[in-house]
From TrEMBL:
<dbReference type="GO" id="GO:0071897">
    <property type="term" value="P:DNA biosynthetic process"/>
</dbReference>
<protein>
    <recommendedName>
        <fullName>Vitamin B12-dependent ribonucleotide reductase</fullName>
        <ecNumber>1.17.4.1</ecNumber>
    </recommendedName>
</protein>
<dbReference type="InterPro" id="IPR000788">
    <property type="entry name" value="RNR_lg_C"/>
</dbReference>
<dbReference type="Pfam" id="PF08471">
    <property type="entry name" value="Ribonuc_red_2_N"/>
</dbReference>
<keyword id="KW-1015">Disulfide bond</keyword>
<dbReference type="GO" id="GO:0004748">
    <property type="term" value="F:ribonucleoside-diphosphate reductase activity, thioredoxin disulfide as acceptor"/>
</dbReference>
<dbReference type="InterPro" id="IPR013678">
    <property type="entry name" value="RNR_2_N"/>
</dbReference>
<feature type="domain" description="Ribonucleotide reductase large subunit C-terminal">
    <location>
        <begin position="158"/>
        <end position="693"/>
    </location>
</feature>
<keyword id="KW-0547">Nucleotide-binding</keyword>
<feature type="region of interest" description="Disordered">
    <location>
        <begin position="1"/>
        <end position="25"/>
    </location>
</feature>
<dbReference type="GO" id="GO:0031419">
    <property type="term" value="F:cobalamin binding"/>
</dbReference>
<dbReference type="Pfam" id="PF12637">
    <property type="entry name" value="TSCPD"/>
</dbReference>
<keyword id="KW-0170">Cobalt</keyword>
<keyword id="KW-0237">DNA synthesis</keyword>
<feature type="compositionally biased region" description="Low complexity">
    <location>
        <begin position="874"/>
        <end position="886"/>
    </location>
</feature>
<dbReference type="InterPro" id="IPR013344">
    <property type="entry name" value="RNR_NrdJ/NrdZ"/>
</dbReference>
<dbReference type="GO" id="GO:0050897">
    <property type="term" value="F:cobalt ion binding"/>
</dbReference>
Length: 940
């Protein structure tokens, strides 16, 4: 069981301080004399979650009670993940009322005990307001609150942790232990290894130190072991190294070198699929890596100057390097393997409210929480679409009042929370770090007619974020007057006030463009002034107030269309239906956006029908081209440019206490120079942290240039040139012909073999005789046939042409290859199935439907890990479509919006499969989220 540290006897109770005045709580959403539960219509639901592959039931709880407006997906997620008690027992929760009461009443009870409310009536109003907002999906606490609060288990409320490690073996072993305890509890942690001396320095005993990268191996193995023995998702962790550490080059290349190893093992026939038997030899796969860079280093990159790498023991310069060389290595490694990310140290610490208590050296796994070592942060996120009025204006006043209530609840939780270690508990109670944030920004911008990558969209996002953080700090200052400032405030008062002035000054620089952002910005300006005035008198209750987290599972709980600060994934979504089955629908934000842009109802209907058929807005009837950008999404046609994501992050970063969990997705054709530009612009635009992911960077990358050229002298004297010999097919040879359909295009594949069973020729009939397409396919077929006869292995062609993307693409009529990203993708997958051995196909990830079902059955037959009962559930959806235009798509099973997007556009999204239910996940901040069961790839 996870080690927990309970509340000390003197946990800052206000009666000990003699300062209790309490907070008056006005009614915002509720009506006096009417309980929130009495305002909604409740209905009984049956939650039956089945495996999307074979339809077997993996979770079942019938007769659960939810409001009628909660979607099937949110009901499934909450019932399976958050209801407590053993299934089939009276102790099992069966109503949303029980879940909300369990959490809210715990908060209210502790709020009363610790003196947060001015009167008993204020406590009652607070309880009703919190209940109403949770009931109506206005906001949600992070998952640990739903798991633990009000239960007999430890009252852990934090999802984000930062650890520390010093240059001693005792500290390193403590790191392993503390990290393991946090992983065991299902959370993630980060730390900076830069205090550990480098491999270029001596030990006190006279030997040479092994360096921090060597200790990363042990921590990575530990994380992998805990993963395999407990939760099914990987352990979430962040490892940071300062750019002036002498081992920075080795650190930068850890992941990219392992990617080369994975490809070499795959080509040699080893099992390196996800969870494969031979993946245990691959290192560093359980952590995100980030390099912490300074302004000094970035200026050396800008000026092409020198930069010193410093000893950890005495700070002396061990080696002088060219800054641009190190920066280019970082960009190339990220281009190859998505790691390392980058953190901007001077920017982070310039916005640090508590520098007298220590520098900020690290972050949590997703980089949104940045504060002192050995600390934690509890999160909550607001659903921005709940504040959009019918006239498509943002209700800034309601948003302000809601933030006040949520921040108050979050601060109360620190009073009764338990923590994994004594040091984390002490720091968190002394600085009371909070992380309020939001979800559904992408949906809000589209609904109000703003392009995500536009000045107007950024202005609205910045204004909302400024209002949120300004209100959070204003309420924090009010709480300081009622129950006292955080313990570390007196020592850091000047610095804290300086950072508050920086936030207010950044707010003054926001340029507004539209009545929506003008109104929000005006209120934000007023709130910041009030926050400064109240804080000058009282101080602040919290050293940190806001972050932008991924909002994965809780985003599904709130029925959000988009997570965190992300844009919409695609215009056509996948929706489960009550009673089973599924359908594809056009995002409901699309009609609202069209109304905001001034289109009439008949025009809106025609545009929505077009999107339902094609999945994008290009050439939609009646839609003006200048409005296309409003409907740009993260993936698919007209996807948002990488720098558009960076600019949005830069717009909201000045109004976030911590940072932003977001990965900048880049197309496969992006260059190393493009990565350099993004990392450099991130620094110039004032971001605190940044990570990139290039599409397919972990799949099918070219191997390194080869051998060094240093060989044996005698071998160099005598060079033998080998030439391939063509092996022609006999006049009479076995062959087969296959008819196929890809994305509605019909064709024929003729494959001729050698008598000793080896493919020797292909001919492809596609298009009308004499057409350009038919001619190109004839020439292509002859080229492949000659190559096969000269000895080029079929598996080489398969590896090159599978996943090639172009139209026609989409559904096929082949049960073994149901989706194809192009005709070539289908042809070579089909040839692989017919002519390659199982072992070779396994290396390429190509299986028949029977083989996939067998693998699924084998996976499902394994025992569930102990305590992970609810995390091993699968979800499923039948495939049924509401669009008659989908044709054969009606019979294609999909499990998520990502798979539906692939179905509609014929493009493969570079996202992993969920390890709990097998559904393809979708991006969510810096990790991935499963829409089927609510699991994430690492972020809580």
């Amino acid at each position: 069981m996870t080690e927990t540290v309970g509340n000390p006897a003197a946990a800052g109770k206000p009666e000990d301080e003699g300062t209790n005045r309490g907070i008056r709580v006005p009614r915002v959403h509720t009506t006096e004399g009417v309980h929130p539960y009495d305002e909604v219509t409740w209905e009984s639901r049956d939650v039956v979650m089945t495996n999307w592959r074979d339809g077997t039931v993996n979770f079942e709880q019938r007769g659960v009670e939810f409001p009628e407006f909660w979607s099937l997906n949110s009901v499934n997620i909450v019932t399976s993940k958050y209801f407590r008690g053993a299934l089939g027992t009276p102790e099992r929760e069966s109503s949303l009322r029980q879940l909300i009461d369990r959490v809210v009443k715990t908060y209210v009870r502790n709020g009363v005990e610790y003196g947060y409310f001015a009167t008993e009536n204020d406590a009652e109003v607070f309880e009703h307001e919190l209940t109403w907002m949770l009931l109506h999906q206005v906001f949600s606490f992070n998952s640990p609150v739903w798991f633990n609060v009000g239960t007999e288990s430890a009252q852990q409320v934090s999802a984000c942790f930062i650890l520390s490690v010093d240059d001693t073996m005792e500290s390193i072993l403590d790191w392993y232990k503390e990290e393991g305890l946090i992983f065991k509890g299902g959370s993630g942690a980060g730390l900076n290894l830069s205090r550990i001396r480098s491999s270029k320095e001596l030990l006190s005993s006279g030997g040479t130190a092994s360096g921090p990268v060597s200790f990363m191996r042990g921590a990575d193995a530990s994380a992998g072991t805990i993963k395999s023995g407990g939760a099914t998702r990987r352990a979430a962790k962040m490892v940071v190294l300062d750019v002036d550490h002498p081992d920075v080059d080795e650190f930068i290349e850890t992941k990219s070198k392992e990617e080369h190893k994975i490809r070499a093992l795959r080509d040699a026939g080893f099992d390196v699929d996800l969870g494969g038997a031979d993946m245990s030899s691959v290192q560093y796969q359980n952590a995100n890596n980030s390099v912490r860079v300074t302004d000094e280093f970035m200026r050396s990159v800008e000026s092409d100057g020198k930069f010193g790498l410093r000893a950890r023991t005495d700070g002396s310069v061990i080696e002088t390097v060219r800054g641009r060389d190190v920066f280019q290595k970082m960009a190339r490694a990220a281009w190859e393997s998505a790691d390392p990310g980058i953190q901007y140290d001077d920017t982070i610490n310039d916005w640090h409210t508590s520098p007298e208590s220590g520098r900020i050296t690290a972050s949590n796994p997703c980089s949104e929480y940045l504060h002192l070592d050995n600390s934690s942060c509890n999160l909550a996120s607001l659903n921005l679409m709940k504040f959009l009025r019918d006239d498509l204006t943002f209700d800034a006043e309601l948003f302000e009042k809601t933030v006040e209530l949520v921040i108050m609840a979050m601060d109360i939780s620190i009073c009764f929370a338990d923590f994994p270690t004594q040091a984390i508990g002490d720091t968190t109670r002394s600085f009371r770090q909070l992380g309020i944030g939001y979800a559904n920004l992408g949906a809000l911008l589209m609904a109000t007619g703003h392009a995500y990558d536009s000045d107007g969209g950024r202005a609205l996002a910045a204004s909302i974020t400024s209002l949120m953080t300004g209100t959070a700090y204003k309420r924090s200052a009010e709480l300081a007057g009622a129950v006292g400032a955080y313990d570390g405030y007196a020592r850091n008062a000047d610095s804290h006030q300086r950072v508050m002035r920086k936030h207010a000054a950044a707010n003054d620089l926001v340029r507004t463009y539209h009545h929506n952002d003008v109104a929000v910005h005006r209120l934000a300006t007023k709130v910041w002034q009030e926050s400064l005035e109240i804080g000058a008198r009282n101080g602040w209750r919290n050293a940190q107030a806001s972050v932008l987290a991924p909002t994965g599972t809780i985003g599904l709980m709130m029925d959000c269309d988009t997570t965190g600060v992300e844009p919409d994934l695609a215009l056509v979504k996948f929706k489960k239906l009550v009673g089973g089955g599924s359908m594809q629908i056009v995002n409901q934000t699309v009609p609202r956006a069209l109304r905001a842009l001034g289109y009439q109802e008949e025009q809106i209907e025609a545009i929505v029908e077009y999107i339902a058929e094609y999945g994008h807005v290009i050439d939609a009837p009646g839609l003006r081209p200048e409005h296309y950008e409003v409907f740009d999404c993260a993936m698919g046609e007209r996807s948002i440019a990488p720098m558009g994501h960076v600019r949005m992050m830069a717009a909201v970063q000045p109004f976030i206490s911590g940072s932003i969990s977001k990965t900048v997705n880049m197309p496969e054709e992006a260059t190393v120079a493009d990565v350099e530009e993004i990392y450099f612009e991130g620094w110039r635009l004032g971001l605190k942290a940044l990570a990139i992911y290039r599409d397919n960077c972990k799949v099918g990358q070219p191997l390194s240039a080869g051998k060094s050229g240093k060989g044996d002298d005698k071998a160099a004297e005598k060079q033998i040139e080998y030439r391939p010999v063509r092996k022609r097919l006999p006049k009479k040879r076995p062959s087969e012909t296959i008819s196929f359909t890809v994305g509605g295009a019909e064709g024929y594949l003729h494959a001729g073999s050698y008598p000793d069973d080896g493919l020797g020729e292909i001919f492809v009939k596609l298009g009308k005789q004499g057409s350009t397409l038919a001619g190109v396919m004839d020439a292509f077929s002859m080229s492949i046939s000659v190559g096969l006869q000269y000895g080029i292995p079929l598996e080489f062609y398969v590896s090159k042409f599978q996943n090639v993307r172009f139209e026609p693409a989409g559904m096929t009529d082949d049960p073994d290859v149901r989706m194809a990203s192009s005709v070539l993708d289908y042809l070579f997958r089909r040839l692989a199935l017919d002519y390659l051995s199982y072992e070779k196909r396994a290396q390429l990830g190509i299986f028949t439907i029977d083989e996939r079902n067998a693998q699924a059955a084998e996976y499902d037959s394994g025992p569930a890990a102990g305590g992970a009962e609810l995390d091993t559930m699968r979800s499923t959806v039948d495939s049924s479509s509401d669009s008659s235009r989908s044709g054969g798509e009606d019979n294609q099973a999909v499990g998520s919006s990502t798979e539906l997007m692939e179905l509609r556009l014929g493009k493969a999204a570079d996202a992993p499969l969920c390890m709990t239910c097998g559904t393809k996940m979708r991006p969510s901040g810096a990790c991935y989220l499963c829409e089927g069961c609510g699991a994430t790839s690492g972020c809580s």
